[in-house]
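Q: What would this chain look like folded?
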Amino acid sequence: MAELITMPKLGFDMAEGALQEWVKQVGDEVAEGDVIAIIETDKASVEVTAFRSGVLRQVLAEAGASVPVGDPIAVIGAADEEIDLTALGVGAKAALKKPLAPVALLVTTPAAPPPAAEPEVIAAPAALAAPAALAALAAARIMASPVAMRMAAELGIDLHRVKGSGPDGRIIKRDVEAYLKEREKTPEKAPAPPIPTPSYEPSMEGYRAEPLSPMRQTIGRRMGESKQQAPHFYVTMDVDMAAAMALRIQLNALVSEEEKISVNDLVTKAAALALRQFPKINASFAGTEIHMHDQVNIGLAVARETGLLTVVVRDSDVKSLAQIARETRELVGRARDGRMRSDDMVGGTFTISNLGMFGVDDFIAIINPPQAAILAVGAVQRVPVVDDAGQIVAGLRMKVTISADHRVTDGAEAARFLQAVKAALEQPLRLML
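A: My prediction, written as structure tokens:
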């Protein structure tokens, strides 16, 4: 039976993706796991893989088109199967996934009652091509009728705040009017005055302006929202890494260079075991609910020239150190090459950010929403410590700091979580069980 391939959601706030390239063409046979397309997000180019074997029967979006998350992009089925797009739930809306070659306008008849069906799509004259293309693109993104869009523009209303009551959630005239009435009852707060930017005197040395990349804009927006909305608190703890580093040396002597275990792999396994004990740390904030996840999927921050990506090691609590090391190496390699797979970046329940390889002693990280916490890991350093006999000796220490959302957890629970991480690293045979 034919099935749809949809635009995957590759991030908490991803709304759409751009189809960069079709790797497979219509009529090509595909096996489960084959790469069929490359999509581009604001952070990376991601491979879309087939979830079943069959033949690529139809493409519903051309290369270069922007497609909302969850919308169909192709159909996989048997070679001799009759494809019924209507039965698969694909209607006239599929035309909007393609580039706007014949420009289309969404038109509603003024004398008609509030629409109960999709507005008619008609071709626009060539003279109206430019504004029509903008109108069609905007309508496709925010699902609003032209009348509603015009009213919103005239009244200064952000349509993202308006709940649609038309077909498929489309915003229509009465929705804008209802929002306007509600806003008049409870006036919106005036926006805070902009922070003045420093002026540059002509006598100062020149500078080079570099526009923010889409990835940097996304990072800035998400981290800004996280710091503003999530009440962060921080707990730091010192970990004695002598036993863990000794075990690492022994293990790495037994394996090839490609299979060697890093300090980050040890921390990942230790954190995963601790998360099983503290489900509220392995959780997400969801408005009026806290979602405590059954899986322990640890996200690892990966530095690229354009900014940070987070790759996800799934089921880290049940995988061996060797599995975690191998999978992490593969994920980081794909992330740095900019050729991610569709499930490499999604599904994380907790994040680790490690700057130890840069010689950083300790730092605090910003929570990756909607997760409840993130662990910042510093370098393993040789420092003077006082032993049990009261003597000053050389020791190996590492600082770890958890940033946690106070809406989900509190300081005592975060401290107990760090104690569990510390215990696993200071008695590293626990990591082998």
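The helical segments are 129-142, 146-155, 173-185, 214-229, 242-252, 263-277, 321-337, 411-426.
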